[in-house]
Amino acid sequence: MKLKTRLIPMRSGGKVLRLKVFRDIRSQKWMFLAVTVVLMLGIMLFLSFYLSYLYLSDTYQTFYTKTNFEDLSIEVMRVDDVALAKIRKIDGVLEVERRIAIDGEAIINGKRIPVKIISIPESQPKINRLYISEGEYSSFLVLEKFAEYYGLNVGNTMELEFGGNRINPRIGGLVYSPEYIMIVEEGSIVTSPGSYGVVFVKEDLLKRLGYDYNEVKIRVVSEDTRDEVLNRALSTLKGYGVVYYYISDNQPSKKLLEEDLKGFRSLAILFPSFFMIIAVFATYILLTRMIREQIGNIAVLRAMGLRRSEIVLHYLTYPVIIGFTATPLGVILGFMSASILTSSYIDFLNLPYYVSLPHYDIFGYSIVVGVLTPIISGFFVARNASQISIVQALRGYTEELYRYGFGDKLVEVAERLVKLNLLIKLSIRNVFRNRRRMIFSSFSIIASLILIMNSMVFVDSMDYVMDLEFNKILSYDIKVSLEDYNGKEKLKEIKKIKGVIEAHPVVEETILIEKGKTKAVMLVATDYNDLYNIYNERGEKLLPPKGIILPSLIAKNLSIVEGEKIKIYTDFGEREVEVVGIEKLPLMPVSYMSLEFYDGFNEIVVRVKEGSLEEVKSKVERIDGVRKVYTVQKAKEDMMELMGFFYAFIFFSLFFGASLGFSAIFNTTNISVIERRREFATLRMIGYTNREIAMSIFIENTVISIISIVVGLPIAYASAYGYYQSFQTELYYFPMVVYPRTYLISIIMIFAIVYLALIPAVKYISGMDISRVTKEVVG
């Protein structure tokens, strides 16, 4: 666009500038739209992810508060009135309750499902109150998600077996519990809604059947007194056979949720921040090249008497419009996305609702950042435009060209191998003729590559862990969970079953490691067999140690080093063991010991003949003393079911990564084409066809893409590594793995995005008015 150089009265200058702004936006609407979309996506992603993180955090905290979630929990062999009265008198204790908790089985449609049976008093417990979603508080309650999975309703009966007893209670209500927002079953890789249940039975019934209280739940006045209260309570219960204890932060469900939130928070900050950086960059490119195109107009404006500050304000109008257009859209879409994302995530949890507090500060922050992001980047460009002298502006913009450089050398080397036509040589030279232009274009491609790689790495790592876990570590077909550690006779009986190839004993339990503070960690003790193997993240097989192998994250948090002796608390009491290895162990960070350290075992792993799985499973389930029979096949299916949300998120990330890449590459490509329209008009005048010019642009962008990919892959890998590490927790560990397919898919996607972004540029060249552009050159 070129302004006529007639004099305009000063009083009309402001109006002219306002008209010019809207004409410029209209003439380059697609490029303005691309920048606006990038900024909008950044705001939308930040709000959707960060609001989801806050909504989840608010939901957990609200539910814990309303249900009086426990501060301390102690499992003992038995606890009487005397001990309970002593704990109640400890300074800092707000409330204390005891209850009965036992393992049993529910028999539904002939299927046996392990359940935790928990006693409840006549009226709602004061600690860990139950949220009743259907029915009423009665003698038998069932977790809502478990009932939903098996199609159970209020009024239905459920058959329960435990300790040789069998009862058929009628379901009085469906409930949610703060202890089981996410169910974590000991010894299980993943717990799906249908693989493990929790039911609540009136304590009078369990007491009549001979069960003693074996759990103590405590709420304290203040978190500051929690550790002191715990120590005094443990001292009080010293003679009652303390089995296990934890503070609320280490409660399995709560800890898993908090670790999950940490990863969510990292995602909510890192991913959108990248979009905002691209938005700054895109705005800078757009305004820089616009000013270069309009350098003659700047001369006219300055000659009209406009001050430098007015020039600055004029060119700041563009990013202001972008900011005020993208921000409201991003905020609205972000809010809607946050609600959908949170609701979808809550569906995976045992929660009756989610809390969406206003969080005006986050909305305000999003609006401020959304508006200021393009303005800040645009300010420097606008200031530079205002400092251009009239004489310099009248001369026009001259590209900083490199007459002989890498492009020419590359052409010379290529021509030694194959004869290149003039168009190809010209295209290769053009790539390196303006290094600034090439850097701008490369940055957009590298940015897109980083986003695609960040998403794909999660898929590779998950596939690697799933293969390692289910094809190497767990080489058995069936795992049998026993009611106690007296499993020798049961092992002999299982080995005699037709279809069983081999069976080996295993110990699986949660132990406490003490060093200044205590940490709960899963322990597996095994003999040397090929059914339950130990592999580290590198896929190296480890032998059952003479001491203990610890997960690196647990060792790091407790400042434990290899060779050190530590105290552990097991089902067999306290013992001291040497740390013989610290390893990064995939999926669930489990500690390992040799079976020699135990006098018994509570698990049996079994390999069966092909086609005999269901028959053997059915026979094992009928053996007395068997608590549950797992199959590796079902565990894998449950894992894949729960990974549905994960893969949906990966698709979401890839979609936005590709969208960002397209917007950024589209912008840089089209601005470059418009900037070079005189050059293309000249080529048309000397006889080149539209197709040949399009081919030259295609070649240029192919060369830039190849260079960007070569430079960008190491950067994308480093970025993915840092991004990935922020998601590691004590509860789950996924080693970062990048398969060759990821590099191939990323490269294909980049070329697809680049070539799609070329289509509008090619159409622009085809529809270009040569005579008009020629007049601009002459003028």
UniProtKB/TrEMBL annotation:
Pfam families named among the record's database cross-references: FtsX
Molecular function per GO: transmembrane transporter activity
Membership in a protein family: Belongs to the ABC-4 integral membrane protein family.
Domain ABC3 transporter permease C-terminal: 270-389, 652-769
Transmembrane segments: 30-56, 267-287, 312-342, 362-382, 438-459, 645-673, 693-723, 743-762
Keyword Transmembrane helix: yes
Native source organism of the sequence: Archaeoglobus sulfaticallidus PM70-1
Topology of the protein relative to the lipid bilayer: Multi-pass membrane protein
Protein name: ABC3 transporter permease C-terminal domain-containing protein
Keywords, ordered alphabetically: Cell membrane, Membrane, Transmembrane, Transmembrane helix
InterPro entries according to UniProt: ABC3_permease_C, Macrolide_Exporter_MacB
GO cellular component terms attached to this protein's record: plasma membrane
Cellular location(s): Cell membrane
